[in-house]
Write a structure and sequence with these properties.
With 254 residues, this protein is mainly beta. The protein is 2% helix and 42% strand. The strands form 5 sheets. It has a 6-stranded antiparallel beta sheet with strand order 2-1-11-10-7-8, with no helix packed on it. It has a 6-stranded antiparallel beta sheet with strand order 15-14-23-22-19-20, with no helix packed on it. The longest helix is centred in the middle third of the chain and has 4 residues.
Length: 254
């Protein structure tokens, strides 16, 4: 069963919401997945991103903020029985599925530095930090020759389906910026890429292939020159992603 959010106020349960979409929003406006019609709640107050058995909470720069288990937070890796408080409302997170992710993993992120305005500094290894509290990242940079590049396939409302599961390991190759030429093998089920507070996406490894999902940021990244949406898009060989001012290419290494 999918994880769920149990909305209550003053101890009385108001409604339950299944987390059956990769991204849901909480807010006062009617387009949100969880609507809380109260002036203490911002139009778009928070978002919950659910990938496989893991859910991540993010405050969307709300006016009054939120707490998890009584502690004010901007980002939080949700665990079973966590209680989110927004004004007078409580949202209890329930998930009886076993997670392979830990809170320590959640605190790791990859920083993508955009190209410098003048001359680019010397190439360095992909930078990792545990203080930005974004999502999961296990970078393993290793130089490798880029594959031949067939014609780029544009993305429409959804990425084109792939008839058979992709064989081999997905790889992201950085094309621009100080880290140009570096590569990241997507060996984990979840890999988050981007710059916290600017643009972040999560890359997921599934039986049918690799998918990219927008997580946070003031604007959407692009895939083959077209903006991503809140929905997951399947990645195809030689897709070009532009994220946080950096261009990168996805390919499959056999």
């Amino acid at each position: 069963m999918a994880a769920k959010i149990i909305l209550s106020m003053n101890g009385a349960v108001m409604q339950e919401y299944l987390l059956d979409k990769e991204r849901i929003t909480i807010g006062r406006k009617s387009h949100n997945s969880i609507v809380i019609d109260n002036l203490a709640v911002s139009g778009e107050h928070a978002a919950i991103v659910t990938i496989l058995n893991d859910s991540f909470l993010e405050d969307l720069n709300s006016t009054n903020g939120l707490t998890v288990n009584g502690i004010a937070t901007k980002k939080h890796f949700l665990q079973n029985n966590d209680v989110i408080e927004i004004g007078k409302y409580k949202l209890k997170y329930w998930n009886d599925q076993t997670s392979q992710t830990t809170a320590a993993d959640f605190e790791k992120t990859m920083i993508l530095r955009a190209p410098a305005a003048k001359s680019a500094p010397k190439t360095e290894s992909l930078e990792q930090t545990g203080k930005l509290h974004s999502f999961i990242m296990h970078p393993q940079a290793a130089p490798a020759a880029a594959p031949a590049k067939p014609a780029v396939v544009p993305v429409g409302a959804a990425s084109p389906p792939i008839a058979a599961p992709q064989s081999g390991v997905g790889v992201i190759q950085i094309l621009t910026g100080p880290n140009a030429g570096k590569e990241l093998e997507l060996t984990k089920n979840l890999t988050t890429l981007g710059k916290a507070g600017m643009q972040v996406v999560v890359l997921t490894k599934r039986a049918q292939g690799y998918f990219i999902t927008y997580v946070e940021g003031s604007s959407y990244p692009t895939l083959n020159g077209k903006q991503l949406s809140d929905q997951p898009h399947q990645l195809n060989a030689n897709d070009i992603i532009e994220l946080a001012g950096v261009k990168m290419e996805f390919y499959i290494k056999s």
